[in-house]
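Design request, C-alpha cells follow.
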C-alpha cells in the first residue's frame, strides 16, 4: 500500500487508547516503519546499469522489516520512547505494525502480477511465508477506498478530539486542519462563523 495509507492506518490505531502526542507519534511510526526496507530501491536504481548492480530492494523489501522479530523490536522501541502509558504504546505499536503487514499482504501486488510473500519468522526461518493469492495491485481501487475511509476517520477524530496526524509535523497546520473541520461541522451544534 501507499506509505500515506500506512501513516493514516497507524494514526488510527494510535487513537484506540488515550495516548499523549508522543505516544500517538510512536504508534503511527510503527505503522509505516516496516517500509524502511523499501529504501533499498534507491541503491538499486542508482546501480542498475553498473557492473555489479545492488539488488537491495528486490532481495530485501518485505523481508528485513516485515517480520515478527522486527515487530517486537519496534514495539519495544516505541514503549521505551514513550513518556506515559508505555504498555498501551507498546501494544498499539505492535498492532499498528501488524496492520501494515496485513495491508501489504492484501494490497501490495506488483504491476506484473507478482505477489509479495512475507517471511514472517525471518531471520530464524524463511519457511513461514505470509501470502494471499487474492492480493490486489498497489494502485487498485480497494487501496483508494481504504485510504478514503481512513481519511474520514482522521477528519472525525480531528473534529471530535481536536488533533490530527499533522500534530506530528506542525502544531500550526494541525490547528488549521482542526479549525477547518470544526468550522465546516461545528462541535455540539455551535453556529458557524
Amino acid at each position: 500500500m501507499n506509505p500515506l495509507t500506512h501513516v493514516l492506518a497507524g494514526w488510527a490505531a494510535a487513537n484506540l487508547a488515550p495516548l499523549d502526542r508522543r505516544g500517538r507519534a510512536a504508534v503511527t511510526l510503527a505503522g509505516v516503519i516496516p517500509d524502511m526496507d523499501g529504501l533499498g530501491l534507491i541503491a538499486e536504481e542508482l546501480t542498475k546499469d553498473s557492473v555489479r548492480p545492488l539488488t537491495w530492494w528486490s532481495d530485501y523489501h518485505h523481508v528485513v522489516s516485515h517480520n515478527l522479530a522486527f515487530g517486537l523490536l519496534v514495539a519495544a522501541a516505541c514503549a521505551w520512547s514513550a513518556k506515559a502509558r508505555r504498555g498501551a504504546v507498546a501494544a498499539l505499536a505492535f498492532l499498528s505494525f501488524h496492520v501494515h503487514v496485513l495491508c501489504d499482504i492484501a494490497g501490495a501486488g506488483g504491476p506484473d502480477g507478482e505477489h509479495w510473500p512475507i517471511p514472517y519468522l525471518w531471520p530464524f526461518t524463511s519457511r513461514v511465508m505470509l501470502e494471499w493469492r487474492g492480493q490486489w495491485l498497489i494502485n487498485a481501487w480497494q487501496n483508494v477506498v481504504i485510504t478514503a475511509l481512513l481519511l474520514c476517520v482522521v477528519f472525525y477524530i480531528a473534529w471530535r478530539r481536536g488533533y490530527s496526524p499533522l500534530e506530528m509535523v506542525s502544531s500550526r497546520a494541525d490547528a488549521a486542519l482542526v479549525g477547518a473541520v470544526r468550522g465546516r461541522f461545528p462541535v455540539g451544534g455551535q453556529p458557524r462563523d
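Comment from the thread starter after seeing the answer: thanks! The mean pLDDT is 92.
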